[in-house]
Amino acid sequence: MISIQEALDKREGKVKLHGWVYRERKSKQIVFIVLRDSSNIVQCIVKKDIVSEAEWNIAEKILIESAVEIEGEIKEDSRAPTGFEVNVKKLNLISMAEPFPINKDQSTEFLADNRHLWLRSRKMTAIMKVRSTIFGAIHGFFRGKGFYEYQSPMFQSIQCEGGSTLFKLNYFGSEVFLAQTWQLYAEPAIFALEKIYTLAPSFRAEKSKTSRHLTEYWHAEMEVAWEGFLELQDYAEDLIKFVFKKVLEVNKEELKILERDVSKLEPVIKKPFVRMTYTEALDILKKKNKMDVKWGKDLRTVEEDELVKNYDVPLIVTCYPKEVKAFYMKENPDNPKTVLGFDLLAPEGYGEIIGASEREVDLEKLKSKLEAEGEDLENYGFYLDTRKYGSVQHAGFGMGVERLISWICGLDNIKDAIAFPRTPLRYKP
Asked: Over the stretch 152-183, which tens digit does the pLDDT of each residue have?
């Protein structure tokens, strides 16, 4: 038994395949079966005068998604979907499917309700393959840089990114939260391991219904000791380039299935990313995009989308006003109104992919910021301890993996970047 792709690579001769009926078309003397497995699809021709009567009866009754084994001869045929067809000599039914509920004209909601079946589509299969490559590339990048994989708890007692987006849980009578990020529990580990990363789910209770948001998503995060703001920007750019290069090497066929314009991805590898300050970004928006944004306001989606229209590579926008950024971001020594943080914005309107900063090491500044946000310092005792015992310069970032997948695959909606998306309106199947 070989895969369909191995049969296509063989090009001619005897093959034995198994898979599922992707398409079927019947006449009195011939049944056309397009067979699929995880590797590809191939057209198979079942002729009444070639197979046994029992096998012909199976072919006449076969339905989409029935599981079968096929033996036959493969040969080139330009009319077939993938350029080859198999003349079937033997047909063995493994499982007869019921009438499949999904056809070409189903609504987005219907497909979401039947996500467990829609995963079998060529589009979703291609996306999941690209997703797998991306996850592997992220691991490969960080391990190649000498990082250790490290995990933080999913149940957390404190907030990091904003109390309004927390999922609150009853933890044996105490209130805890699902992790928004690993960061506050990751920073303590850099004093042991120095360079760490993770790939783990994060949870945000945002009541957002946009095409860019999920309530449960996968987060690629890193923290590094002894390095700062400039090095962090290099890590972010190098990671994105590494992932893109791997996908373009491994997933050419999947990108074709998704009809992704690869020419829009190639500059990400070949050209340096554009780096600018928040203040410079406002000036560009005013001059080139006719958008007048008051200094001190965070950039909204509409402004980010306009800004990236001026470039074909990601933008690293640095030094945002400290009032719009998290308490742990280090104050900019050259301009105390700003922080040493950046957002990496993707071209083509895919928004913020990475949020990053050098971390504040001044214990008193951290306390002041937390108190200003109304937080009880006792709850952050373990975190503040990291600044009392051998604190050093360190930095880190978080990357939303589904946003990266959406961008690389050219998806209209982030919900297609994960097998079973979770949003404010959808928690099943």
From this structure: 999 998 877 766 688 999 999 999 999 999 99
- Identify which of 191, 217, 228, 245 has the alpha carbon closest to the alpha carbon of residue 356: 228
Report residue 59 as tokens.
């072919």
Q: What tokens does 1 get?
A: 């038994």
* CATH number for the domain formed by residue range(s) 115-417: 3.30.930.10
The listed CATH number (1.10.150.40, 2.40.50.140, 3.30.310.50, 3.50.50.60) that belongs to domain 4-95 = 2.40.50.140
Q: Is the peptide bond before 336 cis (omega within 30 degrees of 0)?
A: no
76-91: per-residue pLDDT in tens? 998 899 999 999 999 9
pTM across the whole model = 0.94
Give residue limits of the domains in the chain: 4-95, 115-417
385 contact partners, CB below 8 Å, separation of at least 6 = 188
Beta strands 30-36 and 315-318, pairing class: unpaired
Task: Read off the pLDDT of residues 290-341 as tens digits, 9 standing for 90 and up.
Answer: 999 999 999 999 999 999 999 999 999 999 999 999 899 999 999 999 999 9
Where do the DSSP E strands lie in 127-194? 148-149, 155-156, 168-171, 174-178
**Is 190:225 a contact under the CB 8 Å cutoff?**
yes
Residue closest to 218 by CA, chosen among 16, 8, 419: 419
